[in-house]
Amino acid sequence: AIIDDVSAVDYCWRIVLGCGAIPGIAALYFRLTIPETPRYTMDVEYDVNKATSDITNYLQKTDTKDENEEPGNHVDVPKASWSDFISYFGKWKNGKVLLGTSMSWFALDIAFYGIGLNNGIILSAIGYADTHEADLNLRAYNSLKNMAVGNIIITIMGTVPGYWVTVALVDKWGRKPIQIMGFAVLTVLFIVMGAAFNPLKEHSIPAFITLFTLLQVF
């Protein structure tokens, strides 16, 4: 169908953006209404009696004890400070965990968004690149439709299988081994794809797409 006005596209992305806020609002509602954990009650609210009552109720799976039956026993627990942070993570056995976690996430972001820079090449190769119709309305509609369908295909090719393979195997293999395996394979694939980027793009698009898909999987 041909849209009557390119401005309708503007309405579409605003509607899509607004619909995306609905799950966030629902999550916010449940977060504001869910009972706090005993750990939070003790460490932040300093209410030991309420935390003890919550733990007892959870373990007994009953609600026989009202959390308001006893007055709160508030204790003066010192708040965490930057000096506490430095003192704790200044020790290598603790700091290495924070460093390793943050650097792994940093490296993952570089890989993930770096792969995404090639989406245009893949969309063009599979026939879902921008269109060149003379009619501006038709061009806007078809361009957005092609990008939407093309990105769905790209996601189904690599990202979705990668997620579900991990879901199925992470408890069997372990989180550390599967992460090391992922980084190791990505290292090899990035070296191959980086070294042969132009030849692959110019002479072997199927191989380029295969490597691109494997990058998304891992």
Which helices and strands, and how do they pair?
Layout: H1 7-33, H2 38-43, H3 48-60, H4 82-89, H5 92-116, H6 119-125, H7 136-173, H8 175-195, H9 197-203, H10 205-217
Helix pairs in contact: 7-8, 7-10, 8-10, 9-10
Q: Rough shape?
A: extended
How would a crystallographer describe the biggest sheet? none
Low-confidence stretches: none
**Quick check: average pLDDT?**
81
- Overall radius of gyration: 26 Å
> Helicity level, as a percent range?
over 70%
> What's the helix-strand series?
HHHHHHHHHH
Secondary structure tally: strands: 0
Q: What class, by secondary structure content?
A: mainly alpha
Bin the strand percentage: under 5%
Distance between the termini: 38 Å
How many alpha or pi helices? 10
Descriptive overview:
This protein has helices spanning 7-33, 38-43, 48-60, 82-89, 92-116, 119-125, 136-173, 175-195, 197-203, 205-217. Helix 8 packs antiparallel against helix 10 (205-217). It has 218 residues and is mostly helical. Helices cover 76% and strands 0% of the residues. It has a domain at 106-217. It is built from 10 helices and no strands. The model has no long low-confidence stretch (mean pLDDT 81). The longest helix has 38 residues, at 136-173. The radius of gyration is 26 Å and the shape is extended.
